[in-house]
Amino acid sequence: MAGGGSDRRPATADGSWVVWTMAGIAGVWVAVTLISLLSPDMVTGSEQQRLPVAAFGAWFWGLVATGAFLWGMGRLRGNAARQPFWVGLAAATIAIWGVATVLSIALPVYVTGSDPTRLPIGAMVSPVAAALLTALAGIAAGVLSRPPEPD
Question: Considering the domain boundaries, does residue 75 fall inside one?
Fold first, then answer.
């Protein structure tokens, strides 16, 4: 600009926000894929029929978590001062789903009955818990990023 004026706009960090948003979404869906492929199956009946319960449910909870994560990230966008919060939300989401993946794959299977029936409790519960914790992390990031309103 001529005359020494400057174009003063509030500082934004949209590039960083997009990168961390994509990282969080990728973290959820890599975890959902690994849970679906590597978790033990539920085995039932006298013929020991296998049912991949993690593959049936994990994608739904991945969608719920993605929606909650995007809602939380959307509330943080637009102000560079909130960058630590969106980085933290993305990192927390990746960590939550990483733990859910390990628990879904590694927790022992509950065996019951004379046939026996094998229930992979970790594979059934971990994606639900991860989705709920992702939503909680998004809410917490939104609340903590807002300065208190003056009286």
Answer: yes
CB 76 within 8 Å of CB 24: no
Using alpha carbons only, give the angle 97, 99, 105 rounded to the nearest 5 degrees.
Answer: 100
Q: Which pLDDT value is given to residue 140?
A: 93
CA 146 to chain centre: 22
The encoded tokens of residue 101 equal: 């993946």
In angstroms, rounded to a whole number, what is the distance separating the alpha carbons of residues 38 and 30?
12
Task: Identify whether 151 is part of a domain.
Answer: no
Q: Whole-model pTM?
A: 0.83
At position 96, the amino acid (one-letter code) is: I
Q: Is residue 71 part of a domain?
A: yes
**Domain presence at residue 8:** no
Give the least confident one: 27-36, 72-81, 101-110: 72-81
**Rounded Cα gap, residues 32 and 54, in angstroms:** 9
Q: What are phi and psi of 7, to 5 degrees?
A: -85, 100
- DSSP-derived pairing of the beta strands 42-44 and 110-112: unpaired
Mean confidence (pLDDT) of the chain: 86
Render pLDDT for 62-89 as a digit per residue (tens, 0 to 9).
999 999 999 999 988 877 888 889 999 9
